[in-house]
Amino acid sequence: MREPPLPPLLDARQRAGLGIFLAAALILVPALHLVFPPGHVLHVSTYTVTLLGKIMCYAIVAVAMDLIWGYGGILSLGHGLFFALGGYAFGMYLMRQIGRDGSYRSELPDFMVFLDWKDLPWYWAGSEHFLWAAALSIAAPALAAFVFGYFAFRSRIKGVYFSIITQALTYAAMLLFFRNETGFGGNNGFTDFKRVLGYPITSPETRLALFGVTAGALALSFLFVRWLVNSKYGRVLTAIRDAESRAMFIGYDPLWFKLFAWTVSATLCGVAGALYVPQVGIINPSEMSVANSIEIAVWVAVGGRGTLIGPIAGAFAVNLAKSWFTVSFPEYWLFFLGLLFIVVTLRLPRGLAGLWRAPRRKDAPPEAEP
């Protein structure tokens, strides 16, 4: 019996939307920033470019979370750890550039000089090289996720118990990174970056380049995960989500399917963290806080889990609202976030993605999640 053909990666509407996004990110925004002077109504400020770049990093994390939660049924409350590991790995490279460009010309980062360290820790070896830092920002979260996921999934821990364990793991890592003796800057973390690949990190040209790279990474992440969930692997992963015991009965081992999705998700978070740090200019242990990891789940729930495009919209909607609320009404932001989550759960179970789906006839069969 022949298997049914796989669905197309993107339909016409999705291809058009992706093309518009890339055109806006790679052409329109840079043009409005460079062509029109500051103060002009059409000028896009450096602050706006940085803000949009930061939110696109969050959108990559939302896509990663949707892979494991929307399609794998695995709710993680610790994805902030993988995001921060990628950020710290690339931040090590940026900190080494400060020492080489600074007045004291030391091979040690400035916080190590302040703490009177004499030598670099062994795990900082090679951090002066861009390619090593880029590879480490992928390998560190992937390895941490693989080791943790292997033992967790092999023990068949799932549901709320898995969520609590991921939360505890992230909290423990945050406490570890807060300590000065770990060699990661303690409470202050890494900040005051100067250069990346020899270019001033605060220059408008560098900001635009980072913005464009982040937009490309978001598009590639979306396409890769979309291809993955539309493949035969994605079908099996969804089957394990819906009926794990039945999938095991017909010969599929959930361990390796879950572990692969979990590791891929962590890797995407590491990429997002590496792109986040040079744009925002700081990485510290607060990125591993439990609240940040819960907020990632809120982005996916608000956007609509199991849709991929929805979590991207949710990341933009929630973080744009956060940027406005924390300036205008900072004391009410958490109340608004909680209210938003309740309203979406009760009134929009499919999230924002459910709003633009075409209405169907009452006698039509229900539409399956993509």
What are the main properties of this structure?
single chain, 370 residues, mainly alpha, two-stranded antiparallel ribbon, 2% strand, disordered C terminus
Summarize the structure in words.
The protein has 370 residues and is mainly α. It has a domain of 251 residues. It contains 13 helices and four strands. The strands form two sheets. A two-stranded antiparallel sheet has the order 1-4. Strands 2-3 form a two-stranded antiparallel ribbon. A hairpin with a 2-residue loop joins β2 and β3. α2 runs parallel beside α7 and α2 packs across α11. The longest helix has 27 residues.
Write down the secondary-structure element order. HHHHHHEEEHHHHEHHH
Count of DSSP helices? 13
Task: Report the major sheet.
Answer: 2 strands, antiparallel
Report the β-strand fraction as a percent range. Answer: under 5%
Q: Point out poorly predicted stretches.
A: 358-370
Helix content: 55-70%
Radius of gyration of CA atoms, rounded to a whole number? 21 Å
Mean pLDDT: 87
If strands are numbered along the chain, what order do they take across the biggest sheet? 1-4
What is the strand tally?
4
Question: What structural category arises from helix and sheet content?
Answer: mainly alpha
Please tell me what the overall shape is.
Answer: globular
